[in-house]
Each structure stands twice: as C-alpha cells, then as structure tokens.
Amino acid sequence: MEKIIYLAGGCFWGVQEYYSRLKGVKSTTSGYANGNKADPSYQEVRSEQYGHAETVKVTYDDSLITLEKLLEHYLRFVDPYSVNKQGEDEGIQYRSGIYYVDNKDEQIIKSFFEERLKPGYAIEVLPLKNFYNAEEYHQDYLKKNVNGYCHVNLNLIKEDEKK
C-alpha cells in the first residue's frame, strides 16, 4: 500500500537523494513543512521568520519498505541529539523532525526512537501541519549538481537496499 511520511534531517538535498535511491520508495519531493506562512520562498525559509523545516515528502510502498526501515535509514545520517543543526547547516530550518499524516504512524515513530535512542533526542515527532514544494531548482538537486554539498553520506545505503 502506498504511504507518505515527511522527513526533516538537515539540508533537504541530501535527504531527498538518499531516500530516492531506496527500494520501495516511489517518489521524493523537497519542500518546507510546519511553518507559519503559505508557500514560502527559499529566502523566506532561510530568514527563519516563519519557522519552516526543510523537509522531504517520501511516498513509499509499505509492502516493500516499512516505516521502521525508513526510520532506520534516517538514523544512519542524522545526529538525533543535534538541535537546529546537521552537518555544516545551522538554523531552525535544518532541525530534525518526522511529520506524519497517518495517526497510526505516531506510535510507531515514537516507539522506534524510544527503543533506539537515549532520552533527550532532538527529533520532533509531530503531525504534518503543512507542506509546500520547494522551488524547482531544489528538486533532485544532487542529481543535477553532482558536486553539490551534502551532509548525508550516500554510501550508507547497502547494495541490497538500492533500487
């Protein structure tokens, strides 16, 4: 069955590229989530005025990859204790968060992190309030710009996990 989860893990360029390579992931879209302004521009998000997080919408087939497996991948490249910072990117737009649209996912996510992380982790687990697609030049950025900066280590994906 097709499902959707929204993942914020620092700069969305690397997060999108990472998840786009996984078996079971049907599509990925970079965007801005859970802020206080409709359809913000990248410059407005960077200003931190409206509180958006750089986020990737991940559409996946849960018969091929589970939510738990997606979260396992997430913990491979996200520092779960870092507040508003991943890699060299710093600011509230780079905070870590999992935003769900299916209320059943909330308990799965919280249980997953509670079992694997020490108390005090900085990953928001919240219902999705809103999501706006980022500008076209941000979509699949690392496919278009192979030397682009990315805090996400794409080599963490094992061969048998790739499309």
Write a brief structural summary.
By secondary structure, this protein is of the alpha+beta class.
Description of the structure:
The protein is α+β, with helices and mostly antiparallel strands and about 160 residues long. The protein has helices at about 10-20, 40-45, 65-75, 105-115, 140-145; strands at about 1-10, 25-35, 55-60, 85, 90, 95-100, 125, 130-135. The two termini are about 20 Å apart. The mean pLDDT is about 95.
Overall shape: globular
Order of helices and strands: EHEHEHEEEHEEH
Please tell me how large the radius of gyration is.
Answer: 15 Å
Helix content: 25-40%
**Total number of helices:** 5
Mean pLDDT: 97
Separation of the first and last Cα atoms = 18 Å
SSE blueprint:
Elements: E1 2-9, H1 12-20, E2 25-33, H2 42-46, E3 53-61, H3 67-77, E4 85-86, E5 89-90, E6 96-100, H4 103-116, E7 124-127, E8 131-133, H5 141-144
Parallel strand pairs: 6-7
Antiparallel strand pairs: 1-3, 1-6, 2-3, 2-8, 4-5
Name its key features.
single chain, 163 residues, alpha+beta, six-stranded mixed beta sheet, two-stranded antiparallel ribbon, 5 helices, 8 strands, 26% helix, globular
